[in-house]
Amino acid sequence: MELARSPSGCGTRPGLVVRTLLTVLLTTSAVLLLVHLPGSYGQVVTGPTLTWWVLTPAAAVASYLDFHVQVGSQRYPISLSEIPFLLGLLFAPPGQFLLAVLVAECLVLVVRSRQPLSLTLLSLALFATEVCLATFLVRQVAGGTRALNPVVWGSALGGTVLAILFGTVVVWLVVRSFGVRTDLRPFLVVATVTAMCNASLAVIAAVLLVEQAPALVPLLLVVTALFVAYRGYTGMTKRYRGWEALFRITQVTGMPRSPDAILGGVLDEARKLLRAESAVAVLLADGRSPSVLTSGQMTADDVTRWQDALPGESFRRVLVDGETLVLPRAVRDPLAREFLGLVGARDCMVAPIAGVSGVAGLVLVADRVGGLNSFEGHDAELFTALLAHAGMTLENGRLVEQLHAEVSAREYEALHDPLTGLPNRTLFNRTVEAALDGGEHGAVLLVDLDRFKEVNDTFGHQAGDRLLQVVARRLRAAVARAGGATSGGGAGSRGGSAGGGATSGGGAGDLVARLGGDEFAVLLTGHEDAAEAMRRAVELHGDLTGSAVLSGPVVEVGASIGVAVFPGDGLDLDTLLRRADLAMYAAKRGRGGAVRFEPRWEAAERRSAETPGVRRPAAVQESDPRG
Predict the structure, then answer these.
(1) What's the DSSP call for residue 214?
(2) What is the rounded distance in angstroms from the CA atom of residue 439 to the CA atom of residue 571?
(3) Residue 346: φ, ψ to 5°
(4) Active-site residue, from 518, 572, 581, 624
(5) Which range has the top average pLDDT, 315-324, 351-360, 548-557?
(6) Per-residue DSSP letter, 552
(7) In the 8-state DSSP scheme, what is residue 39?
(8) 350 - beta bridge partners?
């Protein structure tokens, strides 16, 4: 098994010590095995001799052209390196066999990935030990036999498998030295199966090489065809998994959800697709602190440690150029390694979330599950495609939210008074009708300010507007205080229910509204006793009246309140408003206060309306002083 595919980043000091000790131990073991080889230093089997320059290209190609098998959440590297290994074991002198393997693996390590020197030395020591161990076992079993009989090729097959399993255990120990907790059993199972299959092919090739060398050509064609077909299958499987993940992302993002909920689903799917332990989204906001969403082991508190320490030039490419940044375990850049340390991750990828006006945020996935593999170029391509789709969906979600907000704002404006922020006549009427339809008990209060026209004429309309705002605040506070609850819908407020009124202990639908001019209305619910409703109306009058400072002038606030209770004084909106209006005029005649409707006033008004020239009843004959 190749150590080049294992974690290769900057480990902790204890991990470095473990790897150094392993290197020394493996090198010593290889030297001792090589020195104490049984028999001569020639090739084991009589037949063609494979020199190091013939064996090196075959070993390098077999090791380089690998593929991965997905088992659960872990991908395992598979190659045909056991074939040249077993052939070299039988047909190459030990020294040339060892040299061929070391040169081939050096070439692969240089081409495939740049690793720290300590890990490169460990890899070479491991390959040398595998060669010497297998060679020692074969020569110990074969003895002086030079013919390719079942004992010899059986010992070669067993030695090859044993050497591979030994390498697997060493790789697992190295992975553990990086702090990655992985199970050894699936490593051993995959290594055993692949080593047995490849070594068996190598035994067939060895027999043909001795008996019928031309027959190696069709065998080579079959092996090549199977290898190419399986690489194609694994590639197609990988693409299918990518399509499946994008389909799941489409399902997640296609639901009518908030942008945060959509992005949370994207993070979960990205973590599963890329086999990462953590995924983090940092949404950028102009003039505000970035918002953070997490999935997996990393928390928002962890993100605060590193979001201000992003590597300058690298993250400039992400934020400005929209590139995807891959920081594998083998990264050598000092800033990138420092960033991995701040994040507390072995490896990570960072990609932008595109918005209409540029990059709207960043998504980071960290810590590849398992330990054999790190993030690579094809992972970055899939990550970029996933976030490109997510970015469009998030932008659409923001547009939908903006549209909903605009609709809500317009609905609010249509149902509220712009000066005081109180519900207007339309919303008040709707609320009263809902209370009547629900069979509730309560009262409708009409409040009219006394001498409001004098304030307008004397101090101007701005003073009149300020007076209306003062009255609105006092009414809301009085209704909320009397009901033991908090009033909503104040001037400029967008909170509370659509009505923005007060919710009281007397009823869930208490409401303060401005009907127009200097006329206000109050809905009190939950009062089956008319006397209780009148008590609250009198308290409301006391809280409302008194001196008010209007940014300079001080005026006395006076008011007249008319009360109509339901269902006693009416069962429909129009009747209640008309009778509360009659009571309010009666209160004005009595120079303020709170007055409940009396049926005789309505009868008197009806007679005056039916008899031309007859004056209005005393209760309603006073002219309207409202400004």
Answers:
(1) G
(2) 9
(3) -80, -35
(4) 518
(5) 548-557
(6) S
(7) S
(8) 325, 364
Among 436, 434, 466, CA closest to 452 = 466
pLDDT in tens, 242-289: 666 666 656 555 555 566 777 777 788 788 878 888 888 887 665 556
Most confident range, picked from 2-16, 165-179, 367-381:
165-179
Q: Are 195 and 161 in contact (CB under 8 A)?
A: yes
* Mean pLDDT value across residues 167-175: 86
Residue 195 contacts residue 34 (beta carbons within 8 Å): no
Residue 506 pLDDT greater than 60, yes or no: no
Respond yes or no: is residue 448 known to be catalytic.
no
Question: Which amino acid would we find at residue 201?
Answer: L
Cβ neighbours of residue 328 under 8 Å, at least 6 residues apart? 8, 9, 347, 374, 375, 376
pLDDT at 244: 65
Burial of 312 (C-beta count, 10 Å sphere; 0-12/13-18/19+): exposed
Do the bridges between strand 519-525 and strand 442-450 make them parallel or antiparallel, or are there none, so unpaired? antiparallel
Band (238; pLDDT cuts 50, 70, 90): low
Q: Which residues contact 601 (CB under 8 A, 6 or more apart)?
A: 582, 583, 586, 617, 619, 620
DSSP state of 289: P
Report CA-CA distances (Å) from 243 to 88, 275, 393, 598: 42, 15, 17, 76
Mean pLDDT of 439-452: 91
Cis peptide bond N-terminal to 84, omega within 30: no
Check if the beta carbon of residue 346 is closer than 8 Å to that of residue 297. no
Q: In angstroms, what CA-CA distances link 564 with 428, 516, 573, 579?
A: 15, 19, 11, 6
* Dihedral sign (CA 467, 469, 472, 476): negative
Asked if 208 and 215 count as a contact pair (C-beta separation under 8 A), the reply is yes
Where are the strands (E) in 38-184, listed by range? 67-71, 74-78
Mean pLDDT over all residues of the chain?
79
| Dist CA 474 CA 514 (whole Å) | 13
Domains and CATH numbers, the chain: 3-211 (1.10.1760.20), 244-401 (3.30.450.40), 416-610 (3.30.70.270)
- List the structure tokens of 364: 């980071």
356 confidence band (pLDDT: 50, 70, 90): low
Q: What is the DSSP string of 358-404?
A: EEEEEEEEEEESSSS----HHHHHHHHHHHHHHHHHHHHHHHHHHHH
Q: Is the pLDDT of residue 493 over 50?
A: no
Residue type, 352: P
H or E element: which one contains 447? Answer: strand 442-450
Give the tens place of pLDDT for each residue, 555-594.
888 899 999 999 889 899 999 999 999 999 999 887 668 9
Q: What is the dihedral of CA 574, 579, 584, 589, to 10 degrees?
A: 140
